[in-house]
């Protein structure tokens, strides 16, 4: 689908006439991280569900011509207060999501984002309030520089280059599974076989070399969004796990504090993941937030 001057791969579940939930994926991951089962959980509640590959992932437009981002160069620039040249920004990615809604003739939607996708959802809701019915920011953060950061071992694993799957597919899958296991919570089973199969499917759908680095640069230079979040008027849900090692719980609490009347949902034992055992719990919360939107509209 042509949107915002690029091509975005997407698919849709449910009745096309129903209210839409737009799902925005996280850093370096494809739309299928929002699993079919999770999408169906939302469809059973009466919604149409649209998921898509962010730019530089999966089957959407890749930005290989910009080259891979060197993490040492990025870190050095940030330390020195310089802004390196970016292939794109999170605002560009929010414009992609808005462009997809336009292309699908969806006037207003419920926006749900996870991790980096939560940041994109925050920007979309703050900059285009007339297009957003409700917001769910899951395992995300505000960009507040005073918040606690991930532990050194998590950052080392995150930044360590993955093997090229064309040369070492088993090594690539082992790399991805090890990181997923590290950031998962302890209260819910980690299904290694299912995660390995998901990573394998992503490779087969389409991999964007360097895309992860270009996206992490966009995140790193997005800045503090708290003043923008204060402008969000849509009913908002903030979901975070007590065991998130990538964005500690304070990041979710800061997000909820920055958004007027946001509901904070802190889930015991959840990490930086969305295990199937929590699908119903989180879908219930998204539905509840969407219903707050309906009440607000009916009261106008």
CATH architecture: 3-Layer(aba) Sandwich
CATH fold field value: Rossmann fold
Q: Can you tell me the overall shape?
A: globular
Number of helical segments with 4 or more residues: 11
Could you describe the largest sheet, including whether it forms a barrel? 7 strands, mixed
Q: Give me the count of strands.
A: 9
Q: Cα-atom Rg, whole angstroms?
A: 18 Å
Instruction: Report the order of strands and helices.
Output: EEEEHEHHEHEHHHHHEHEH
Termini separation comes to: 34 Å
What class, by secondary structure content? alpha/beta
CATH class descriptor: Alpha Beta
Strand order of the largest sheet: 3-5-4-6-7-8-9
CATH superfamily: Alpha/Beta hydrolase fold, catalytic domain
* Stretches with pLDDT under 50, minimum 5 residues: none
> Average pLDDT, to the nearest integer?
94
**What assembly state would you assign to the polypeptide chains in this entry?**
single chain
Overall structural domain count: 1
Hey, roughly how much beta strand do the residues contain?
A: 5-15%
Quick rundown:
This protein is an alpha/beta fold and 300 residues long. It has eleven helices and nine strands.
